[in-house]
Structure formats: C-alpha cells, structure tokens
Design goal:
This protein is of the alpha/beta class. It has one domain: Rossmann fold. 40% of the residues lie in helices and 19% in strands. It is built from 9 helices and 7 strands. The strands form 2 sheets. Strands 2-5-1-6-7 form a 5-stranded parallel sheet, with helices on both faces. A two-stranded antiparallel ribbon has the order 3-4. The radius of gyration is 17 Å and the shape is globular. This is Chloramphenicol phosphotransferase. InterPro entries: P-loop_NTPase (IPR027417). It comes from Candidatus Dojkabacteria bacterium. Pfam families: CPT (PF07931).
C-alpha cells in the first residue's frame, strides 16, 4: 500500500506522517517529498525569511512577494523535472515489496491524476489534511521558518481534495489521533507487528 498524505504547508503532514510511521509495522517506508526535492540544494532548502536571495528567480525555486507582504513559492524547471519522476521512484520501492507513507507536495488535480496513473497497479490511498486559512497562517507564523502567506497560497491552489479517500481536519484533532483515524479507515490496525 502507498499512503499519500496531502495538504498545504503547516497542515500537519510531516507530523502525521511521522506518527503513522511509528504506528505501522516494520517495513513501512517514509518518503519525504521535501527531502527528495531537497537534493537540489540550498535554493530549495532555504526558502525562508532569513535568506536574502529568496526572491531571486532561478531554475530551482524562489519566492514571489505580493503587495500584501505575503509570498508565493515559484517552482523552477529543475524542481518540476525532479517532481515529475517521483511516481517512478515510489514505484520502484513498491515493486520491491515496500509499503510507503508519502509526505506529499501534490497540490493539483493534474498531479494526483499523474500519480494515480503511474502507480495504478499499487494500492494507493490519498489522505487530505485540512485546516482553515486562519489556522494555517497561525501555524506558519509560529514556526518562524516559513515565508509569510506561502502556505495559504498553496492552500488556495488545491483543487483535488474531494478526490481523496479521506479528508481530515487537523485544526482540532491531535496528531496521534489523526494517524490512528487513518490506520482505522484503511483497516491497518491489525497489521502492527
């Protein structure tokens, strides 16, 4: 099985993925899309307010500042190319018999369709983590390492959440409970070894 945990930055994806990994049996892998794309180096990894070059256009990723002071992350050709082969990378792991939790950066219906098509022979489940714009903004600000408003820009770009197998509101539920809800929904609760 491949579980894609989707949602904007600050929706709780990484925390939920880590909680899932702890609850699932040995043999489950945790695939961090951010870590995978981080192979491109500092221009991807340093998309934060302290980076004085964060707004300089490049082939990897940069931030566009809007009049209201918020930022939008612009992905370059190299990120797009590396992102486009993620289904193949995940497919190789699944072909070897691994179950995978994917900390996903899928934001568009066209992307979820690409993943479904490429991985159609595997049991893929898509989980969408939601929270209000107000809560996403609060979390983003409290983290301190995110560009103001970038998470809300991603949130507004999502156009596929209704296509997911499960939608969970992370605003008022504890991360460990969300992980247990996912495990129960997918009938994985009896598979811990």
């Amino acid at each position: 099985m491949i579980i894609f945990v989707c949602g904007t930055s600050s929706s709780g994806k990484t925390s939920v993925c880590n909680a899932l990994k702890r609850e699932l049996p040995d043999g489950w892998l945790l695939f961090s899309t951010e870590g995978y794309l981080g192979m491109l180096g500092d221009k991807f990894n340093n998309l934060h307010p302290a980076n004085i070059e964060v707004e300089v256009p490049n082939k990897i990723a940069y931030a566009k500042k809007h009049d209201d002071g918020s930022f939008e992350i612009i992905v370059g050709a190299l990120v797009q190319r590396l992102f486009s082969i993620i289904p193949e990378a995940i497919g190789l792991l699944a072909q070897r018999g691994f179950d995978i939790v994917v900390d996903s950066l899928i934001t568009k219906k066209s992307e979820i369709d690409q993943f479904r098509k490429a991985l159609d022979k595997f049991d893929c489940k898509f989980i969408y983590l939601s929270a209000s714009e107000k809560e996403i903004s609060r979390r983003e600000e409290s983290r301190g390492d995110r560009l103001k408003g970038s998470a809300v820009h991603w949130l507004r770009a999502f156009d596929f959440h209704n296509e997911c197998d499960l939608i969970l509101d992370t605003e008022n539920i504890v991360v460990n409970q969300i992980a247990k809800d996912i495990i129960n929904h997918l009938n994985l609760s009896d598979k811990k070894s």
